[in-house]
Amino acid sequence: MSQLDDILTFNKxxxxxxxxxxxxxxxxxxxxLTIVTCMDCRLIELxxxxxxxxxxxxxVIKCAGGMIEDAYGSTMKSxxxxxxxxxxxxxxxxxxxxxxxxxxxxEKMIADIKxxxxxxxxFEDARxxxxxxxxxxxxxxxxxxxxxxxxxxxxxxPLLPEGTPVYGxxxxxxxxxxxxxxx
Length: 183
Ligand SMILES: [Zn+2]
Description:
alpha/beta, globular, binds zinc ion
């Protein structure tokens, strides 16, 4: 059986048993907060548990490194939707130690992409769209700096509702320990 078959089989049973009942919630975050964090798989359950967040409490936006680089990219758009349309009132940018984006160099990733068969014209295509792969694919060198930069993108956004608190934090993906980042 494929992984997809496994998932679909499990899912049928999950729904039939009404295992979803403990997770029922409205689509508006009860704790009125938005979290932007990394997609790291260690944070799936640990982060909400460590922050005392349950299903329905928060809007959680995930991307590699929790990096908010583009003021008009999809992460920033999601933040604005959460604040204007879903009732969120505060933004928490949470980076983490031991992140896969820490020290990731675009040159390495470009080499990895080429190894998997991407042709040079694929990168040319990105350039035609105004994207420089040698910058776009970079990670970061310091998690604190990364969080501060992302917080600044949100805080300085011209469309941010006035007075919205924006906090920067770093979480330990093993213990769940949180510490604020000074900006
Ligand atoms: Zn990460």
